[in-house]
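Sample pair:
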Amino acid sequence: MVERDFQAKLIKEIKDIFDGCIVMKNDSSYIQGIPDLLVLYKNRWASLEVKKNARASRRPNQEYYVERMDNMSFSRFVCPENKDEVMHDLHLYFTQ
């Protein structure tokens, strides 16, 4: 599966699970390495860096921004292989 298709399915799943959330796609040309998605839900937010698979390469600064944003709120790399785990963790974060 290409990343674009996985990302589209992931966005739909997030919107289905977290009713009323806003999912925004970030512009990687604005800040290189910033995670692909910003999810706003009630009074919380999360960022997700989408990868087509667990072996996909990571661009410079992606590790930095995922870690930095995770320290602020919630941020993860997500791919088909870890999607269920990430969605479980996101659900716990948004509903605590």
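The two ends are 33 Å apart (CA to CA).
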